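cache lookup: miss for this entity combination. No prior model stored, computing from scratch. Input as submitted by user K.M.:
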Amino acid sequence: DQQVKQNSPSLSVQEGRISILNCDYTNSMFDYFLWYKKYPAEGPTFLISISSIKDKNEDGRFTVFLNKSAKHLSLHIVPSQPGDSAVYFCAASVGNFNKFYFGSGTKLNVKP
Amino acid sequence: DGGITQSPKYLFRKEGQNVTLSCEQNLNHDAMYWYRQDPGQGLRLIYYSQIVNDFQKGDIAEGYSVSREKKESFPLTVTSAQKNPTAFYLCASSPAGNYGYTFGSGTRLTVV
């Protein structure tokens, strides 16, 4: 049973617009969340993180929002660029950096 | 350049044969991990190791074995006991107690 779910396998967005990628989790004990980005034939690379004591973390064009009551987090990319086209994974852990649970990924396509 | 190397990129094996996937890092990271990715599913943790000569089972360790004789190396053996070995395998490393995973580019194993 997947504890971290990304229900949208794909998302298509026009360049310059906002991309919103969603992630839901079932374990209320999760206290650390990450987003990874993966290009074809490469390993995932770390993008942005958030701990459960915050509800928002921002890094340039990327912002992650955490709604603990809804067990939901989202990644906003503004403005979207064609180079953002990749698969995005969310991941969560319970006070243990050595054990992350990953979602199935959302493939983002940013059209020029 | 520091990084994590997985080899080979593609691997074909006959059913019933054991196969070993290589993972080497020169980042001086203490912890190393093996994940498996199947279509439509998130990355699932197979094994992880926090220090040399020590490793722990992840969520799907059955049919796999690992060793950690050197800090730089964490090979994964897919044994004949693994019922569905065909998958994409990702190795990662991180400094101790840190979420900053660095992933390799993966090995796609196909068992025929």
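stored under new cache key. The mean pLDDT of chain B is 91.
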